[in-house]
Amino acid sequence: PDSLVLNSQMYSNYKSRCTVKSLIGITPHGTVSFVSLLFTGNASDCAMVRNSCLFSLRETSDSLMADKGFLIARDLQSIGCTLNIPHFMNQTGQFTPDQIKDNRMIASVRFHMERAIHRIKTFALSP
Question: Rounded distance, CA 43 to CA 37, Å?
Answer without folding.
Answer: 12
